[in-house]
Design a protein that fits this description.
Blueprint (H helix, E strand, L loop, with lengths): L3 E6 L4 H11 L5 E7 L4 H11 L3 E4 L2 H10 L7 E4 L1 H8 L6 E4 L7 H9 L3 E4 L2 H17 L3 E4 L2 H9 L16 E8 L17 H5 L8 H9 L1 H13 L7 E5 L5 E7 L4 E5 L5 H9 L13 H4 L13 H12 L1 H19 L7 H15 L8 H21 L2
Organism: Allopusillimonas soli
Family: Belongs to the DXR family.
GO biological process, one term: isopentenyl diphosphate biosynthetic process, methylerythritol 4-phosphate pathway involved in terpenoid biosynthetic process
Length: about 400
């Protein structure tokens, strides 16, 4: 068995920590080569010591100093600094597999560098595909990278697809597949009275009924913008037209998604809501390896419910479909405006229901400028910066 040398981008986050948990169960096949973190530097030092990582990447010299101060002793990893070092480490010749688990479009350059270097890319960072789906998938194809989705829905769909043990970037829908059925929990506000939504707090929005995740994706789950990002993600990963992707609300989060075939068969992947399952699937692919997830108790669950999403309660889902139809530039704007609005909401600077308003206004104003389709990383980042600037103004102006 070939030892995989794994680079975990965003190792201190929710996905990063779950990844290290799975890696630690398989010392015979998985080793940590590099780790990266943005703010929780003390946790990074503890992780690097526990995994004997050879490289760590931090954002700036201040973080480097904090890492040195927190280092518990033993063989010190090489410390690399800055965004370029992050991309270079993802492409490091020693690395075989890259877990892209940075949150937001900030993770795009390093995820793209991993694809460009032909690595096995385990993609949790959905914002990378939303902002640059065409570019990212083309890079995977042209550079011979392998792409394994970590997002539980896309991992479920991948598992239900015919893929012949190869993880490639398709250019057309898999033969025989009619539709993708993307399940959504509906988040913490699925059944809350509509007038109460004006007053919900960041902590309420982050209290997801089924999953423990980082705060940004937790708010996205509450607005269901997360499901919108996932529709766009599924469009790119599986080369599936938007009208053949259906969102179904399934509050128990046990069916992680489904693939419907031409003959009427529907294949579903089920499991406990625990990200170690898709992470272990991708780390072991095409073999199945232990994830630490316990037995599945269907009888204890009793029932599984399904319903259609309410697009009035969840305007962000409608806006995502509109952005996907409008094209790549609108998707960049959708994601950027959301990142800005969610950040302001988490800082108590705007109310929850303003998130959707800011995204909608940003999309309207950006589309009035007749945005060209961004084809390169620089063009994507440029458009992303423009949309962030506009969204920040909208947050302040209250319009
Ligand atoms: P998190 O907030 O818990 O962790 C984010 C990680 O990214 C941290 O290690 C942080 O240090 C790093 N980071 C943040 N900003 C950065 C920057 N500007 N530059 C470099 N590094 C930075 O987030 P998470 O919940 O682990 O989510 C990570 C990604 O995985 C997101 O794109 C999310 O949508 C996706 N995802 C997460 C889950 C989940 O269960 N948590 C499920 C599906 C998909
Ligand atoms: Mg998901």
């Amino acid at each position: 068995m070939i030892m995989q040398q794994v680079c975990v981008l965003g190792s201190t986050g929710s996905i990063g920590q779950n990844t290290l948990d799975v890696i630690a169960r398989h010392p015979e096949r998985l080793a940590v080569y590099a780790l990266s973190a943005h703010s929780r530097i003390e946790r990074l030092a503890a992780q690097a010591a526990a995994t004997s990582a050879r490289v760590v990447v931090v954002a700036d010299d201040g973080a480097r100093q904090r890492f040195l101060n927190a280092w518990p002793g033993g063989a010190m990893p090489e410390i690399r600094v800055g965004a370029q070092a992050l991309a270079d480490t993802a492409a490091d010749p020693e690395v075989t597999s890259v877990m892209a688990a940075i949150v937001g479009a900030a993770g795009l350059p390093s995820a793209l560098a991993a694809a460009r270097a032909g690595k096995r890319v385990l993609l949790a960072n959905k914002e990378a595909l939303v902002a640059a789906g065409g570019l990212f998938m083309r890079t995977v194809r042209e550079c011979g990278a392998e792409l394994l989705p970590i997002d539980s829905e896309h991992n479920a769909i991948f598992q239900c697809m015919p893929h012949g043990g190869r993880a490639q970037a398709p250019t057309q829908p898999a033969p025989g597949v009619r539709r993708l059925l993307l399940t959504a929990s509906g988040g913490p506000f699925r059944a809350m009275a509509r007038e109460q939504l004006d007053h919900v707090t960041p902590d309420q929005a982050c209290a997801h009924p089924n999953w423990r995740m980082g705060r940004k994706i937790s708010v996205d789950s509450a607005t269901m913008l997360n499901k919108g990002l996932e529709v766009i993600e599924a469009h790119w990963l599986f080369a599936m037209p938007e009208e053949r992707i259906q969102v179904v609300v399934h509050p128990q989060s046990m069916v992680h998604s489904m693939v419907e075939y031409e003959d009427g068969s529907v294949l579903a992947q089920l499991g406990q809501p625990d990200m170690r399952t898709p992470i272990a699937y991708a780390l072991g692919f095409p073999e199945r390896i232990d994830s630490g997830v316990g037995l599945f108790d269907l009888a204890a669950m009793g029932r599984l419910d399904f319903e259609l999403p309410d697009l009035e309660r969840f305007p962000c889902l409608r806006l995502s479909f509109e952005a996907l139809r409008a094209g790549q530039a609108a998707c960049v704007a959708l994601n950027a405006a959301n990142e800005v609005a969610v950040d302001r909401f988490l800082k108590h600077q705007i109310g929850y229901t303003r998130i959707a308003c800011i995204i909608e206004s940003c999309l309207e104003r950006m589309s009035a400028k007749a945005m060209p389709r961004p084809d390169t990383l620089d063009e994507v980042l440029d458009l992303d910066a423009q949309a962030r600037g506009l969204a920040s103004e909208l947050c302040i102006s209250g319009s």
